[in-house]
Amino acid sequence: MNSQLLSLIKREISVVMRSQSEFVYPLAFFVIVTSLFPLAVTPDPVQLAFIAPGVIWVAALLSILLSLNGFYQADYEEGGLEQLILAGVSGSNIVFAKSIANWVVTGLPLVLVAPIIGFLFNMDVYANGIAMLSLFLGTPSLCFIGSIGMCLTLGLRNGGVLLTLLVLPLFIPVLIFGASSIGAASIGVNYSGQLAILGALLIFSIMVAPFAGAAAMKISID
Amino acid sequence: MWTWFFQLASPKWVYRFSDKLLPWFRAATLILFVVGLVLGLLFSPVDYQQGNTVRILYIHVPAAFLSMFVYVLMAISGGIGFIWRIKMAHIVSVSCAPIGAIFTFLALVTGAVWGKPTWGTYWVWDARLTSELILLFLYLGFMALHNAFDDRKTADRASAVLALVGLVNIPIIHFSVEWWNSLHQGATISKFEKPSMDVDMLKALLMMIAAFQVYFITVLLQRVKAEILEREKLSGWVKKLVTNE
Description:
The complex is a heterodimer.
Chain A lengths: L2 H16 L2 H20 L4 H34 L1 H7 L4 H30 L4 H29 L5 H28 L5 H30 L1
Chain B lengths: L2 H5 L3 H31 L15 H28 L2 H33 L7 H22 L3 H15 L2 H11 L19 H33 L4 H9 L1
Helix pairs in contact in B: 2-8, 3-4, 3-6, 3-8, 4-5, 4-8, 5-6, 5-7
């Protein structure tokens, strides 16, 4: 990894960590949303264990969707993004760095907190491990795919709602395979196929998203 | 030899040209629909299991086929416009979106109507149905994104990027019935193998696909014309056209 990319990632993380809200809010959102389901659906432990994979994945997906804005909007409005591009930093490097930083700041904590939620939902240790693994493989793809939508809606007045409309359809494959891998693990069926597809989706989104995002960013900036 | 090709990039020329083409396509749409519907509703056999319900096929399959075809056309012309900055390509791309969304919606609705008597349910969350639903969302996202920008050029370029990214979904829809176990049946028409359906049914189905295709071109030309007028409203030839007619 070249030094420019590394310093970009460091910059993103340090900027975001300075205001802890970006770090804490998605995590708090994740915990609160998941805790709503036992209240709304049923407190029955067997049924909770049954719906847990879907609940964890949907909540993780939504909290990443919420976190995207913090990495781009302020940077765009204050002109930092423009300065980076004027300084000759390639757009794809910026998008790549932002996605990595986004995952480190929001995705990784979700992976670490997921087992706690899993235990509260009466999932066994084994399924919890697979839940962590599938989130570990899946959430970075969400950050990368989300960055495309974010770059497309930069500088739009009602960008938030539009972002949801653009990005959620593209999130669906990750959601399906992520949740079904946990579901398969909890009933004792082979889950390696779903994990392999999650990995493939990750590689594909890392390959495509920085370039698509850079193209979109250029449109939004000039 | 290449002049006609370059002329395709000129809105004025395309406007004139589609004016000339439209009557032919309108007539062809009418004829093909009449022939296709007569073949499908009167002269094709009933299915030994599904009975007359199978006739939904003649609307469902062409609509589903076109929902994907239109998306590919939209993405490719968007890509052409994005790379070579051709105004006409963006106009075609933008005009495709609502038509494609309607075809997708039609495929979903006819599928649901067909599913009730044959599968016993209007909707199942399996791969083909879900990915077709995603396609509808992609169309809606494309239109929403295009509407969100004040500047039309920015809107064109941004939505072209979105269309190209969404292109990933097309092979997923197409192969979903082969990759996953699904209630939805596999493909019955293929280029290379003998089709697994009755010849009379096949004739009617192909006629209906042709009818839908020609109908799509007709509507597309109409929309392209309207879009050209809208975008070129400040240019001299549009003013002349509007005042003289």
